[in-house]
Amino acid sequence: MLNLLFAILTSAGIFITFKYLEKYKVDILLAIIINYITAAICGYLLSDKAFVVQNIIHENWFNISILIGALFIVVFFIIGRSTQKAGISVTTLASKMSFVLPLLFSILYYQEAVSTNKILGIVIAISAVLLSIYKGKSDKLNRQYIWLPVLLFFGAGTVDSLVKYAQQEFLSNGGTEQFSTLLFAIAGISGILTLLIKRESLLKLLQVKVLIGGLVLGLVNFGSLYFLIASLNSSGFDSSVVFSIINIGIVACSVLIGLGIFKEKLNKVNLLGIVLAFIAIFILTN
Predict the structure, then answer these.
(1) Is the distance from CB of 40 to CB of 188 less than 8 angstroms?
(2) Which of 65, 135, 198, 258 is close enough to 182 for a disulfide, judged by CB 3.0 to 4.6 Å?
(3) Which residue blocks in 86-235 are alpha helix, DSSP H?
(4) Which chain regions cross the lipid bilayer (predicted)?
């Protein structure tokens, strides 16, 4: 249960960090790059095995870590583009609801048992997410770009599904630190290449506020992936239950943090969503 709790708290930490990055007008792309470099260093320092490139390329998880690392950056760009073109509300909805894909993947591909309690808990969990992020007056949806949030839904869901696959097939007996190191390193390199393609100076990465913001973001980002895999390995719950608990926990935690720290206003529907989130967690863990 501690791994589940830490997975929720570190993921919520990403939300807090992004809020402060926005507040202090830190370039998000630059902070994201520093974040991935920081996360890769965390994985390297925590690994009990030497990170030897010649050995890494022969690991059975090498190819999938490259794929996930590249998808990290791609999904990030889709989030930014979708927010600008399709609208904030629909982008948030697509991002939060993407947990349905790894949930279904775990049930269908790995033939996880489906009980009445699990179905009830998952339905309440999905309802909790929808209600927690509901806004009475949402921003106008630009239907011309509806394909962007749809792409985000499948992109983010695919990333989590691939993480589940890697954990189940390759990481159940260790190797999480090395896997994470390579994954985040690939994402960081992809980000640097993006800067070069845009012909922007790499010296921008050395701005103090970018370094601080990226460092904090990298620490919680690494923690979110590390504790997600640890939860899948050792929580004792089915993967579908783990994904449900973590995602509704993140949403509920983020909403409460927004209320307490950033003084964001909640409507009655949001409050109902938070109540349902805790009910769903209770059902899924019993």
Answers:
(1) yes
(2) 65
(3) 88-97, 100-109, 116-132, 147-170, 176-197, 208-234
(4) 6-21, 28-46, 61-79, 86-110, 116-134, 146-167, 179-198, 210-229, 241-262, 269-285
